[in-house]
Specification:
globular, 20 helices, single chain, mainly alpha
Length: about 425
Amino acid sequence: MQQKRFLRLSLGWRIVLGLILGLVVGALFYQNKMAIAILNPIGTIFINLIKMIVLPIVVSCLVVGIAKMGDIKKLGRVGGKTLIYFELMTTIAIALGLLVGNLTKPGDSINIQTLSKVSISQYTATAKTAGNNGLGDIIMNIVPTNFFEALGKGDMIPVIFFTVMFGLGIAAIGKRGHVLVDFFDATSEVMFKMTNWIMQLAPIGVFALIGVTIAQFGLSALKPLALFLLIAYMTMIIFVVVVMGLVARLFHLNIFDLLLVIKDELVLAFSTASSEAALPRIMEKMPRYGVSQGIASFVIPTGYTFNLDGSAIYQSLAALFLAQAYHIHLSLGQQITLLVVLMITSKGMAGVPGASFVVLLATITTIGVPASGLAFIAGIDRLVDMGRTAVNVVGNSLAALIIAKTEHEFDEEKQQNYLADVKKVTAEKVN
């Protein structure tokens, strides 16, 4: 009986088990090159499997959703609401990071000379390639010159732009477009089936990803920066529970119900530090939770570029932390400038690897902090990334619910039925 119960562990619990084992193995094989060489490819293969299915799911679901929506005015209204909501939430997140940084002053207790450095050359190269990406560059890059090239590079926003246009085109030709809607509908079902298969490998992928991180940096890297790590996580928790909780309540939603529904996806996002890992499951789950397919298919992928609340908190907190560590006093005007700069750079850099770190590289020099200062916090970046990724996933899930509510495309009966099923399954697992 006990063996059967173990075998019936939910995906979330199996991922947690993989996370714990990864921590243990990573600590045991600290700086062991052979262990790192074995674990690294396993983690990379799992992330590549996730990346393989993300864009086909986004394209197929978005084509179907937009084709069924079929109204360019409605799409413009939904797009406008979505971008305004994203901008408001990320601005609040940046401001919260600055507020907490000013109140707690985590950098004041750090002796920058005693911290060990980690190479940031990969991020420096990325920052030079990406540039500062002003608002003009962001707008120019929305329209792809070659859709398949954008698809191959994984550029989410150009892909979304083309897919929206394609979906509207299908809607415009009427009945003749039904065959394409059926094709993409079937494609999305196939991709979700593949997602379920790949997710069974998640515990192994998480085990390898965490194991290789701890084996490379070791648990000792945490000690000098433990206060910063604690403050970063507490700030993220406050943002989810208080800020998102209040926003959810304004729209007659309960943030804790949402957290219960997406708990497995949160564990997956947290342990892999990859928003993409959770995206396919979130896009499958939100329509079941009452959000119309068109809204879910548009809002969630767009949020992966424009609504990175966890990253915004980290960027503002880390910038202030480094300024304090270097004994650089920032006036109120300088901090407001920092907030504005982060609002712009965080959007422009969202699509590049190690985006949060690259944003910091592009930002901290504006407040007088040397770019080399990031080498001191690079060792814990992965651990902070786990938390900020989970917050990003919650933020995008909540955004889909809220936009659906404002468009009267939220099925409350469907929501209650799905929530009841989730609570029932959770209670059975506990008992």
